[in-house]
Specification:
The protein is about 35% helix and about 20% strand. The chain has 14 helices and 16 strands. Strand 15 and strand 16 form a beta hairpin. Helix 1 packs across helix 14.
């Protein structure tokens, strides 16, 4: 009873402290910058506050709710990393395993010398494999390898890395796609099905998956992109025109679409489900305390992020480790056509939150700063 009363007091106080942030979201969604936004806050493993603003569609016929489904994009990588750590705990994988153990065609060189890329290098983005390393695909993808052979496409014997693995870090989705192939080789199971059975279902994420169910499709958030933005222009150049719906002034509205590269960013989920994932992550439903300690405390690799808004960034297993304005927190963002998302964890305050928005250009870092400043100002 005492714990319940303490939590109730916390929730009531929190409700008052996020008033400014909610007013900000009200204004932003009214201006359709973005049209839809949702957030959730957790104290420890308890979901203590959730709220949604705006509308799912351009015609404003469906208000965004806690069950409205967004593309979360690269937040999926945290689920993928969680799956890897489960398999490490079970002995099916080791962080020190070389990629070549599971994908024997894979070879890498640095400075003309053979080098080893490990599972840990993929998890913390220190492998040197970038999203532009197209030559790595036939070395790690059996289906594409057979296609390349049958169509006389040149296949390199190795890839040349820009730095020695483990000495530097650069964000890459290709690394997590390779991880998903390693998982499938090690287990003989489908990556997407494993995420559903091992993470989504235990977390009780009932409206999440890698494709839209009929129920999810009836309450989905449609993504938007602005005409005059560098990131928007770049993404539109590579988008399938079938995914583009219509222009509303200078805003492009997108249709429903799925993502093929599951591990790198394929999950669709509502904010409530992402909060449930965080709860399960915190309360050891998904892994034991020892494994979570390895997850969070394995030494990180510094990132040369001179353009980043934060003071110090390094990559750990799955998470960014960030020091900024006297605070330390774990973070991951999702960015893709139509959506911008974020998870942050502040261990000092036992506080975490998730923000989902329906516009590529959302300044999600400043949104996260604004939210945590409001919460800290009222509670700590």
């Amino acid at each position: 009873m005492k714990i319940t009363l303490v939590l109730l007091s916390f929730v009531l106080t929190l409700s008052a402290t996020v008033t400014d942030f909610e007013q900000f979201l009200q204004e932003e969604t009214h201006a359709k910058t973005p049209p839809s936004a949702s957030f959730a806050i957790l104290q420890g493993d308890q979901i203590v506050y959730e709220s949604s603003f705006g509308y799912n569609d351009d015609e404003a016929t469906q208000a965004t709710s806690l069950e409205s489904v967004y593309h979360v994009f690269s937040l999926t990588k945290i689920l993928a990393a969680t799956l890897v750590m489960q398999l490490v705990d079970e002995g099916a994988l080791s962080l020190d395993d070389p990629v070549q153990k599971y994908l024997p065609r894979f070879r890498a060189k640095y400075d003309d010398q053979n080098v080893t890329v490990t599972i840990l290098n993929l998890l913390n983005h220190s492998s040197g494999i970038s999203d532009r390393s197209s030559e790595v695909r036939p070395l790690t993808d059996d289906n594409y390898y057979r296609y390349a052979v049958s169509h006389d496409i040149e296949i390199v014997k190795y890839i040349e890395l820009p730095y020695l693995p483990g000495t530097a870090a650069k964000y890459s989705s290709a690394e997590y796609i390779i991880l998903s192939r390693i998982i499938e080789k090690a287990t003989g199971e489908d990556f997407g099905e494993m995420v559903i059975e091992r993470i989504v279902k235990p977390s009780k994420m009932e409206r999440s998956g890698f494709t839209y169910t009929e129920e999810m499709a009836t309450n989905q958030v449609y993504g938007t992109m602005k005409m005059f933005s560098i990131v928007g222009i770049a993404m539109r150049m590579f988008m399938d025109s079938a995914n583009k719906d219509h222009w509303d002034g200078t805003t492009l509205w997108l249709k429903q679409f799925d993502i093929g590269w599951l591990a790198a960013g394929g999950l669709v989920a509502p904010v409530h489900d992402m909060a449930l994932f965080l709860s399960a992550y915190h309360n050891n439903t998904l892994m034991n305390e020892k494994t979570k300690k390895i997850f969070l405390e394995t030494p990180t690799v510094n990132v040369d992020a001179w353009m980043a808004p934060q003071e110090d960034i390094s990559f750990g297993i799955g998470w960014y480790h960030i020091r900024d304005k006297g605070e330390f927190y774990y973070q991951h963002q999702g960015l893709g056509p139509g959506f911008r998302t974020m998870i942050r964890i502040y261990p000092k305050y036992d506080l975490s939150f998730v923000i989902l928005t329906s516009q590529t250009e959302t300044d999600i870092d400043s949104w996260g700063d604004r939210l945590v400043d409001d919460v800290k100002g009222g509670l700590f």
